[in-house]
Amino acid sequence: MLPSSRPKAILFDLDDTLWPIAPVIAAAEVTLHAWLAEHAPKVAQAFSIEDLRARRQALLAADPALQVDLGALRRAGLQAAFELAGEDLRHLDGAMAHFFAARNAVTPYDDVLPGLLHLKQKILLGTISNGNADLEVIGLAHHFQVSLAASHFGRAKPDPAIFLAACAALGVAPAEAVYVGDDLRLDVEGAQRAGLRAVWLNRGGAAAPDGLVPDAICSSLDELLRWLERQLAA
């Protein structure tokens, strides 16, 4: 490995990389539906949680561009439900605020805080996410020099543009950056296409499909730290 290609920055995915997201979204949707039952009862009576989820999927199928902004997708689905139920749209902002408060109530994996504290002493850190987590609300924003969200950037992973923009914001070449994420297509393939090295954070021990070869596979941030030490020493 040439000295110029030693890592100078690590970029992280967020959901299912730094914290588990499925139980958080499930709980947020239950909380939202309870809020609707109190403040927008026509919507709650007309649409179950599953109905609202199906409506979002239908909207996404009709307009795949909504994948770039999952918050806008959720709002569009909820607004349509309000209109169909004849509910007062003045409650829509409150519903979305209530959902996002619950959506950001994440619990990082045990290795995340010590891992970030260790990494930030050695290397630049950033994040790239297709989701709508708010790192300020979650309390992790201060660990990262750069955080890009697809909803603000206008392009989503695996598009190389969002990876290249994060590298430019950190002042590093793509070959000097490592991307860490849980999704082989969005994270590994997307990062490699942009010229970054990609670490598959495989916390669950899933089997890798044929055709995608991460630069490294780690089961935890502890293992990532050990891998990084080897790269920096090379």
Task: Give a description of the structure.
This protein is an alpha/beta fold and 234 residues long. The protein has helices at 22-39, 41-46, 49-62, 70-85, 92-103, 112-119, 135-138, 150-153, 160-170, 184-193, 221-233, and strands at residues 9-12, 124-129, 146-149, 177-181, 197-201, 216-218. The chain has a six-stranded parallel β-sheet, with helices on both faces. The protein folds into two domains: 3-20 and 107-233, Rossmann fold (3-Layer(aba) Sandwich), CATH 3.40.50; 22-103, Four Helix Bundle (Hemerythrin (Met), subunit A) (Up-down Bundle), CATH 1.20.120. The radius of gyration is 19 Å and the shape is elongated. Helix content is 50%, strand content 12%.
Shape: elongated
Instruction: Give the number of DSSP strands.
Output: 6
Largest sheet: 6 strands, parallel
CATH architecture of the largest domain: 3-Layer(aba) Sandwich
The helix fraction, in percent, is 40-55%
How many domains comprise the coordinates?
2
Report the total helices. 11
Low-confidence stretches: none
| Helix/strand structural class | alpha/beta
Query: What spatial order of strands do you see in the largest sheet?
Result: 3-2-1-4-5-6
- How do the helices and strands follow one another from N- to C-terminus? EHHHHHHEHEHHEHEEH
CATH superfamily of the largest domain: HAD superfamily/HAD-like
Rg, Cα atoms, Å: 19 Å
In the CATH hierarchy, what is the class of the largest domain?
Alpha Beta
How far is it from the N-terminal to the C-terminal residue, by CA?
Answer: 7 Å
**What name does CATH use for the topology of the largest domain?**
Rossmann fold
Overall average pLDDT: 95
Strand content: 5-15%
